[in-house]
Amino acid sequence: MRRPLAVLFLAATLSPVGAAAETHAPFDVIIRHGEVIDGTGAEGVVEDVGVRKGVIVALGDLGAAKAGKVIDAKGLVVAPGFINIHDHADPKALPTALSMLTQGVTTSILNPDGAGPTDIKSQLQADAKDGLAMNIGAYIGFNSVWAHVVGLADRRPTADEIQKMRGLIESNLKAGAFGVSAGLDYKPGYFATAPEVISVVSVAAPWRTNFPNHERLTPESGWSSKVGIAETIAIASAAGLSPEITHIKAQGHEQGSAGAILAMMRKATAAGHYTPADVYPYLAGMTGLKAFFVPGWAQAGGQDAMLARFKDPALRAKIVLEANAAIAARFGTADNISLPTSGRNLGELARKEGVSGGEEVVRVLETGEYVAILKFGAEPDLRAFLAAPEVAITCDCGVVLPNAKEGFIGHPRLYGSWPRVLGYYVRDQKVLTLPDAVRKMTGLPASTVGIVKRGFIAPGMTADITVFDPNTIIDHATYADPTALSEGVRYVLVGGVVELAEGAATGATGGVILSRMSHMPSRPQSTAPLSHFAVKAVVKSDAEGARAVTLKVSRDAFGHASGHVTISGPDGPLTSIRLGILQTAPGWASLTGIAQDPKGQEIPFSLIYDAADPVTGAGPQLLFSLASAPWQAGVAQ
Fold this sequence. Notes:
- The strands form 7 sheets. Strands 1, 2, 3, 4, 5, 19, 20, 21 and 22 form a 9-stranded mixed beta sheet that branches. An 8-stranded antiparallel beta sheet has the order 23-24-25-26-27-28-29-30, with no helix packed on it.
- Among the domains are: 106-286 and 379-452, Alpha-Beta Barrel (TIM Barrel); 303-375, no CATH class; 530-635.
- Mean pLDDT is 91; it is low at 1-23.
- The longest helix has 19 residues, at 313-331.
- It is an alpha+beta fold.
- Helix 6 (225-239) links the parallel strand 11 (210-213) and strand 12.
- It is globular.
């Protein structure tokens, strides 16, 4: 008997995902005859998907079942809604979210790169005040916390300031943050030493969460991505967090080193520090011009202090010298730097004015232009990262208004990332398979940040669903036309609400604010079969008294669960008639499914077992949610 967990809960006789599903009540939505690729990495199955009250309740042949809306998905792929775990959203665009919906994205996690407000509860409430066309959650940003407490100067924090920063991070984790993001390549996070970062972010260790970081490249390391990634792994590992290599790349003079970078990550995972990554499907990035070229000491104190240093001839010469070295190491030549706001090229400007690339950086910044598109990479490296099993697909972008002209507009990734992967790299280039690409857009990012009820097509999962045409899906955005909409995403459901129909936004706002609990750990996606897991337990609830639970389940290599669970209760037993995905990590498991009460009513359920809560010290615990009710906790014995 394998018993790596200890207890699940809820009820009765179970059938595997994909079995023919009988149901009596009408559905809100039925998606018929599509190829369901469920986010686990398994091959697609042609079957129907039934949705009721925002939840996937049935898969299989739904026959003549009725629904308020029927979507004919014959010839189309039905996938979980895509999850963007690196999202720089414009809050004004969240009620419509056209640039994301047309790519199939249903959930975004905000505040990457250490950015964002230091009160995410207030931030998300403000972002949602006019409605949400997609789901949003948030990280708490290390850089923002540092700036709030220490400021913009390059100085060492006091012991009291370290404690204040730890307090800010902990309060935001209690408010539902999905991890602690950092951008140690950006100021003022750049000024923090590795031991200081560890001292601050280690407060998050009991939350079993992740540390996504834009790696720090320094002159001392020769602007080495590999050194920066090694630092991310070292900081997170020492702090007790999961390192997440954000928008992974091998840039500049280190092109060709994707294999070495992946080997470094896998070595850390083998040592017990699970290290995933994310990647976007382009060979150029976009950020503030000063971020990568003006040395840290010259940015200390903020924008006005930097501009004042530009006016000092001796300091300017030193800044230009370091900027030229950074250009050469990170991007090869100033010709690989373009300015989307004005449509100019930095190398061409420098030659026209007879100056170096570094001097041109300073001149452009003095005019107030600050956004740059930076060509950094090589196609073989990108393909290696896209194919790597632990690398999720993201965009390093965010939802924007359709006619936006300001901010970080100018990169095609804002409108094309996921369709580009599915069309160009999957269908045309065959760099990865369609089931694996879908997994890297859904189940993998969900597991990375700790989401449990999204990321899969399975009974009991929230009905975030993307329907696309695998034969036509493609990006159309280019650097010359960066806001061209992608083609091929036909329908998008968010919480069972149709947000995109026949490629056009409906104007609905089915999105919600997502929060993470301490019982939702960052974890590898479950991919190993579990042949037998059995346990007996008592679930105690203040409201309903004690319930006896008997559980016998197994799962296949993709996580599809089957087996038998029973639970007693004052109104008779609930009986599970369809099981979803059994997700596991050491001492932890989650399961969704559909139960049936003695009157034949079908009730979605979600379960979490946790052997111990590192935050409170309590354990083992059982958490369950029936239908859309909040999570309730019980004690497993």
